[in-house]
Automatic annotation (TrEMBL):
Glucose-6-phosphate dehydrogenase C-terminal domain ranges (all copies): 207-494
Native organism: Cyprinus carpio carpio
Ranges for domain Glucose-6-phosphate dehydrogenase NAD-binding: 19-201
The protein's name in its UniProt record: Hexose-6-phosphate dehydrogenase (glucose 1-dehydrogenase)
GO cellular component terms, A-Z: endoplasmic reticulum
Length: 774
């Protein structure tokens, strides 16, 4: 040990103190101590001295033997001879020590001990590395203790490694970030995702860079058919239920590991791969381009034994049922010109048939093989970033030979594989691929610990990147929180039960699950019912059937209008009512005559059209971006003029009224679709809306009791001129309103919807059974 210290002092790189908080826990035992031993073996004789502390809540008497039981089991790095390893391991054991870390005084004592050691040996301090292998709820408290008691001198660095999970959703992640940033600087925090340390993942950007000239022409929507990002596990969650039941598979795997892989595959290539700031910015730009995902874009499952494990490990009663998914399949789309329309299938689950992880880019084939289907040009074209396990058993980058021969991703530590086993990987024999693989497999934690030591931030999660990922995933998680996952038996018995498919932009299981229906509900007794409501026609059904009927009625109305006048003018209201309809129109009605349809707005909030609160933004995201409609057939309300929002002097309502009169025959829309608020308002016409000039004006500015208060709306004059008006009311929350409206005859100033009375057109109420029956 003294000889090593002397060598280090000659090189004058200083002393590094490593502290693993949670140093006797499961993660530390399996990975962290091995990783720091690898770091030490790599750095012996290169200028730094080290000391290692395993910290935990136990007393020194209890913790010391636990720590040294872990250290004795450390494996020798492959590059060391047996004799050399024995010497290095002996040194490592002498440099390692247990230290109780429970109270502020414990951290103060640790800091004093570090200072004392440095003073006695007369060496300068290079830095301190704290690895927090503890539950996330303890991060803020430990960060405060480190900040107040264990900071090194200003000339030395401080690096604090944080393990996931970093929050439970966007809001908890923001709260945690706020607490941590009050104690630590962003450059001092290393949020670790061990997937970024996997050798194949770390080479995705270098592979794309090395093969840029050949990849650029085909890395786009014209050539890529689909992308698959997969992590399958055979293990269950038993023993981890206390953690797992709070998080589930999406938070545990998709939000972090698989999202990072997707981002590296599809983000813009940075000019400099060592520029962590440019990499971060490109990641953020990509995440911002992802289309919104919700329940319609995902399926979830839960292995059969999971609920019993929850009841046992969490002491729940036999009637308790957990909705935590152990399987998820999500299809993601990117909203940019390069990747528009390419489905990204992302899936992970426990208790599946095999353990494997890969990311696959499948290319379109423009070859038709009349004969010899085994010819290489007739086979699938694909690039696979294979992370390990499965049939191949080792990490590799595979590129089918009918694409091109790739450059070696890294000549020093990667090799080209030329000896092929007789195995099939995703539809092709190994001999059909060019294969690159690491010369020496290294554990992900070893790689990342080395990166922390050298201060490399590009392999870690930034605060901005973390929050951007949570912002994307949180709406889906909130929507799925009330969804019952499909139960699957586990392992090979799953069969095709978890296969899922894409229909338009909606995702569904490919096969129906067999279930025992004990109490058939009213759903089995009704399909679509027609009748009268407030003296007008009414159509009622369960939500899905009702939306399908309304979409069908719209199609008939459009075809009739186009036959008679050559065009169809449709005005859509904002709010939550039309969401399901817009999806149905976008994804299911491929025969709708969009080229001859004009889209108008019934009402708009006074916010920029690019903001999420805008009704036009909602129409764009749910409908317009999925259909082929001429740009000049789209008529958003002009709420944003001269860099101001809904200012009377700017004349927005007058401009929109002129546009209506210019395009719409007699200012009579062919179809206006309305919703109804729980207070009885429709469009943006509220109980207190002043309507003195209603008879003259088609469009006015109004005030809403809810934020944003300013609105623009068609008037009742415009609405009542329409050929057809449909009013869509859905959900149990509207049942009381539907009952009250049914008892009112004629108009009521309390309920503006009662003023919808088309003069020569038709009014149809579309009310689902939840709203009608409660």
């Amino acid at each position: 040990m003294k000889e090593w210290v002397a060598i280090s002092q000659d090189l004058s790189l200083g002393h590094v103190t490593v502290v693993i908080v949670g140093g006797t826990g499961d993660l530390a035992r399996k990975y962290l101590w091995q990783g720091f031993f690898q770091l030490y073996a790599d750095q012996v004789g290169k200028g730094h001295t080290f000391s290692f502390y395993g910290g935990a809540l136990s007393t020194t008497e209890k913790g010391t033997p636990l720590l040294f039981d872990i250290l004795k089991e450390l494996a020798c790095p492959a590059e060391l001879s047996v004799e050399r390893c024995a010497l290095v391991k002996d040194q490592f054991l002498h440099l390692s020590k247990y230290h109780q870390l429970k109270t502020t005084e414990d951290y103060e004592n640790l800091s004093q001990q570090i200072k004392q050691q440095l003073g006695q040996e007369g060496i300068i301090e290079a830095g301190r590395l704290f690895y927090l292998s503890v539950p996330a709820f303890a991060y803020a408290d430990i960060a405060e203790k480190i900040n107040n008691t264990c900071r090194p001198p200003s000339e030395a660095w401080l690096r604090v490694v944080l393990e996931k999970p970093f929050g439970h959703n966007l809001y908890s992640a923001q709260a945690l970030d706020k607490k941590l940033s009050g104690q630590l600087k962003e450059e001092e925090m290393y949020r670790i995702d061990h997937y970024l340390g996997k050798q194949v993942v770390s080479k995705i950007l270098p592979f794309r860079k090395e093969n840029k000239k050949l990849l650029d022409p085909i890395w786009n929507k014209h050539h890529i058919e689909r992308i698959e990002i997969v992590l399958k596990e055979t293990l269950d969650a038993k023993g981890r239920i206390q953690f797992y039941d709070q998080y589930g598979v999406i938070r545990d795997v998709l939000q972090n590991h698989l999202t990072e892989v997707m981002t590296l595959m599809l983000m813009n290539l940075p000019a400099n791969l060592s520029n962590s700031e440019e990499i971060l910015q490109n990641k953020l730009n990509f995440l911002a381009s992802l289309q919104h995902v919700d329940n319609s874009n995902a399926v979830v499952g839960q292995y059969q034994a999971y609920n019993g494990e929850v009841q046992e490990e969490l002491n729940k009663t036999k009637d308790y049922f957990s909705l935590t998914p152990t399987f998820a399949g999500v299809v993601i789309h990117v909203d940019n010109a390069q990747y528009e329309g390419i489905p990204i299938f992302m899936t992970s689950g426990k208790a599946l048939d095999e353990r494997v992880s890969y990311a696959r880019v499948l290319f379109k084939s423009n070859v038709f093989c009349v004969q010899d289907p085994n010819n290489v040009q007739c086979k699938s074209k694909q690039i696979i970033f294979y992370l390990g396990h499965g049939t191949l058993q080792y990490p590799a980058i595979l590129l089918s030979k009918n694409l091109f021969k790739p450059e070696l991703v890294s000549s020093g530590d990667w090799k080209e594989v030329t000896e092929y086993k007789d195995v099939n990987v995703l539809g092709l024999q190994l001999s059909d691929y060019y294969i690159q693989s690491p010369v020496t497999p290294r554990e992900a934690y070893c790689e990342l610990i080395s990166h922390v030591f050298f201060g490399r931030k590009d392999s870690f999660i930034s605060a901005e990147g973390l929050l951007a990922s949570w912002e994307f995933w949180t709406p889906l998680l909130e929507g799925l929180s009330r969804v019952f996952p499909r139960v699957y038996p586990g392992g090979v018995d799953n069969g095709n039960l978890l296969n899922f498919q894409l229909k338009g932009h909606q995702v569904a299981f490919s096969h129906e699950a067999l279930v025992n229906v004990i109490n058939p509900g009213a759903e089995d007794n009704f399909q679509v019912m027609q009748g009268k409501y407030r003296s007008s026609e009414m159509v009622s059904a369960w939500a899905q059937e009702l939306v399908e009927r309304l979409a069908s009625d719209l199609l008939l109305a459009a075809e009739e209008a186009i036959r008679e006048e050559g065009q169809f003018h449709l005005a859509l209201s904002g709010g939550s009512s039309p969401v399901a309809l817009l999806r149905a129109l976008a994804l299911n009605l491929y025969t709708f005559p969009w080229r001859n349809t004009h889209i108008w707005q019934v009402d708009e909030r006074c916010v920029p059209h690019t903001e999420s609160g805008s009704n036009f933004r909602s129409i764009h995201d749910l409908l317009l971006q999925h259909i082929r409609i001429p740009y000049f057939n789209i008529h958003p309300m002009p709420v944003h003029l001269t860099q101001r929002l809904c200012v009377e002097e700017d004349g927005g309502p007058t401009l929109y009224e002129k546009e209506i009169k210019k395009h719409v025959n007699g200012s009579s829309f062919h179809y206006i679709l309305l919703g109804v608020g729980q207070d009885g308002h429709t469009a943006s016409l509220f109980q207190d809306t002043k309507l003195e000039n209603d008879e003259e004006n088609l469009v006015i500015l109004t005030e809403s009791p809810n934020k944003p208060h300013q609105r623009m709306s068609l008037t009742f004059t415009a609405i009542n001129r329409a050929r057809r008006v449909g009013v869509l009311i859905m959900g149990k929350s509207k049942h009381e309103l539907v009952s009250q409206l049914s008892r009112i005859k004629g108009e009521s100033s309390k309920y503006p919807i009662t003023k919808v009375q088309p003069k020569s057109g038709t009014l149809i109420w579309y009310i689902d059974y939840d709203a009608l029956l409660g």
